[in-house]
Q: What sequence folds into this?
C-alpha cells in the first residue's frame, strides 16, 4: 500500500490536509512495526508532501484496526470523514462518511500526549490494543542524590536517562550494552550510520576503550627491530592522553580506534569510538551513580534542534520510555525555579586522533566545531612535545544519512527546526545599496529572522519575528542561545520560513571565542541544510 500510493500519487492538493508525523507503530501478526516519515523519505527519495499524504492514508486505515498503538504528535482530535475537504475524502472510498479518522496538528510549544486511534475493538491478532495505554511515557526526575542513584540503576539495567551537560542535554544509556544502545537509536529515530559519544568521568575510563591505550608499548619496525619504543601506538596514546588531560572535563570529544569490547553499533561499524568527559556536575554524578560508561547523543529526534532545556527533551521524547533529569525540581518533584539552560549551549568539538603509517605522521582531524578550537588543540600538542609528530587539520563533512561516520553531526541537515530554513548570502545582506523587492517583503511577513551581531537587522521591521543571538557579537552568549532560538522559531504563529545570515569567517587566529563563532556558523548552516540564497523565497 505504501509503495503503490506513495510513488504513484501526485495529489499535491492534499498537503493542506496532511500534517507531518514523527512515528506510527503498527501491529502485524502481533509484532510491532515502526514506520516513520523520515524513514519513508530516505527509502523512497521523495519529498515531504508525499510522506504526509502516505501517513494520512495509513491513519485512515486505522479504522480497520490496522493501527492499534501510538503516534507521536502534539495536538490531535478525532473528526468525522464528512468534515474533511472533498479532495481529502477521495482517499477514503471504503470508509463510511460517518466513520472517524484521526487528524493532528504539529505545534512544538504544546507538550506531547497519547490518544488511541480506536477504542471500539480491543484485539488485533493476538495483541490487545489495551496494551497501548500501558506504554511508558517520559517523566521528569529531580537532580537529588536519591533521584540520580535511581537513574544510575536505570542506566545499568539497560534503560534510558536524559541529563544535562555543559553542551546540550544527552540521552544516556549503558555504552557497553548493545540492546541499551539500540534503544537510543529507536527513541531518536536515528540512523545507525551516526555513531554515539561515550561519556566518562576519568581519563583512564576512556583509555580502556581505545585500542592505542591497550597495545604493547614496544613493537617491531619494518626491519624487525624490537627496540623501537616510540611506536605509532605510543604516539597516538600519548596524544590522546595529553589532549584529555588538557581539555577534560570539558567540551572536547576525542575519537580513536576502538578496543574490542566496544559494541560496533555505537561506532556505526567504523571501528572508531568517540569519548568525552563532561564537566557538568549532574552529568558527572550520574556517571558515578551508574558505574558504567554512558553513551549519549543529544536528547532529541534525529535532525531536529538539539535540546538545552528539560522541556525541549520532553517536547521531542515525551512519548518514549525515558527519565529526564530536571535540575529545577525539588525532591518532591515540583518545579521550584526557572528551568536550567546548558552553559556552553552547542555540542562539543570532535577531534579524531590517528597515526598514518604511510606518511609516518600523526594527524588530529577536527570533525565538528565546538568551544575548543583547532589552534588550541595544536598548542596543546606542541607544548607537550608532540608538535613535530602530529598535524592538526579541519575536516568538516556534509553528507546524507546513508553515509557511515566516525563522529556525529556530519549530515548536511541537522539541528533543523520544523520550518523551511535558508541562509541569506553575505553578498546580499552586506551590500550597502541593497533593496528588498515587494515580493521579498511579502515573504518576510511570514518569516522569522534568527540573526547574529545585527547582520540582518535591516529586515527586523519587515519580518514576522526577529531574534538576535547576540547583538554585540558575543560568541559565548550566541552559542548559549542558538538552539533555544531555533526551537522558538518554529513556535511563532504564522511562520512559514526561517532566515539566518551566512557567516563569513577567514579562519585565521582561531581562539576560544572564534571557535564558538565557527560552531554557530556550522549549526545555522546545517539548520538550513546548507541552502544559501541571494533572493528571498
A:
Amino acid at each position: 500500500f505504501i509503495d503503490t500510493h506513495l510513488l504513484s500519487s501526485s495529489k499535491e492538493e492534499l498537503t493542506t490536509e496532511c500534517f507531518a508525523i514523527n512515528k506510527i507503530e503498527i501491529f502485524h501478526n502481533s509484532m510491532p512495526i515502526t514506520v516513520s516519515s523520515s524513514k519513508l523519505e530516505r527509502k523512497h527519495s521523495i519529498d515531504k508532501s508525499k510522506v504526509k499524504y502516505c501517513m494520512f492514508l495509513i491513519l485512515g486505515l486505522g479504522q480497520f484496526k490496522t493501527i492499534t498503538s501510538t503516534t507521536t504528535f502534539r495536538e490531535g482530535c478525532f473528526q468525522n470523514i464528512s468534515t474533511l475537504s472533498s479532495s481529502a475524502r477521495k482517499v477514503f472510498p471504503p470508509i463510511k462518511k460517518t466513520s472517524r479518522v484521526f487528524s493532528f496538528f504539529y505545534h512544538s510549544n504544546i507538550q506531547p500526549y497519547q490518544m488511541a486511534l480506536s477504542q471500539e475493538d480491543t484485539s488485533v491478532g493476538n495483541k490487545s490494543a489495551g496494551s497501548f495505554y500501558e506504554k511508558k511515557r517520559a517523566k521528569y526526575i529531580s537532580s537529588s542524590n536519591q533521584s540520580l542513584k535511581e537513574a544510575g540503576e536505570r542506566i545499568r539495567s539497560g534503560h534510558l536517562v536524559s541529563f544535562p551537560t555543559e553542551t546540550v542535554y544527552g540521552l544516556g544509556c549503558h555504552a557497553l550494552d548493545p540492546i541499551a544502545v539500540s534503544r537510543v537509536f529507536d527513541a531518536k529515530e536515528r540512523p545507525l550510520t551516526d555513531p554515539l559519544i561515550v561519556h566518562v568521568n576519568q581519563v583512564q575510563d576512556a583509555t580502556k576503550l581505545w585500542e592505542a591505550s591497550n597495545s604493547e608499548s614496544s613493537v617491531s619496525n619494518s626491519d624487525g627491530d624490537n627496540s623501537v619504543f616510540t611506536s605509532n601506538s605510543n604516539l597516538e596514546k600519548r596524544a590522546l592522553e595529553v589532549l584529555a588531560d588538557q581539555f577534560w572535563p570539558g567540551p572536547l570529544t576525542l575519537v580513536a580506534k576502538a578496543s574490542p569490547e566496544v559494541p560496533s553499533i555505537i561506532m556505526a561499524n567504523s571501528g572508531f569510538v568517540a569519548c568525552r568527559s563532561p564537566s557538568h556536575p549532574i552529568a558527572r554524578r550520574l556517571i558515578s551513580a551508574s558505574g558504567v560508561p554512558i553513551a549519549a547523543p543529544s536528547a532529541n529526534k534525529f535532525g531536529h534542534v538539539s535540546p538545552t532545556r528539560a522541556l525541549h527533551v520532553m517536547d521531542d521524547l515525551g512519548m518514549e520510555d525515558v527519565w529526564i533529569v530536571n535540575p529545577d525540581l525539588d525532591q518532591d518533584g515540583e518545579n521550584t525555579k526557572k528551568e536550567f539552560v546548558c552553559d556552553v549551549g552547542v555540542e562539543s568539538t570532535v577531534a579524531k586522533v590517528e597515526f598514518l603509517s604511510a606518511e609516518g605522521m600523526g594527524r588530529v582531524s577536527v570533525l565538528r566545531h565546538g568551544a575548543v578550537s583547532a589552534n588550541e588543540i595544536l598548542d596543546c600538542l606542541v607544548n607537550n612535545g608532540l608538535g613535530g609528530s602530529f598535524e592538526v587539520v579541519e575536516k568538516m563533512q556534509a553528507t546524507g544519512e546513508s553515509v557511515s561516520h566516525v563522529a556525529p553531526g556530519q549530515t548536511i541537515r541537522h539541528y533543523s527546526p520544523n520550518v523551511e530554513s535558508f541562509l541569506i548570502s553575505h553578498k546580499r545582506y552586506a551590500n550597502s545599496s541593497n533593496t528588498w523587492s515587494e515580493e521579498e517583503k511579502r515573504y518576510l511577513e511570514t518569516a522569522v529572522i534568527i540573526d547574529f551581531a545585527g547582520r540582518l537587522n535591516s529586515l527586523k521591521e519587515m519580518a514576522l519575528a526577529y531574534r538576535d543571538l547576540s547583538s554585540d557579537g558575543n560568541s559565548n552568549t550566541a552559542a548559549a542561545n542558538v538552539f533555544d532560538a531555533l526551537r522558538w522559531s518554529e513556535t511563532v504563529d504564522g511562520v512559514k520560513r526561517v532566515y539566518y545570515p551566512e557567516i563569513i569567517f577567514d579562519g585565521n587566529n582561531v581562539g576560544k571565542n572564534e571557535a564558538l563563532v565557527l560552531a554557530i556558523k556550522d549549526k545555522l548552516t546545517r539548520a538550513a541544510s546548507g541552502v544559501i540564497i541571494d533572493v528571498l523565497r
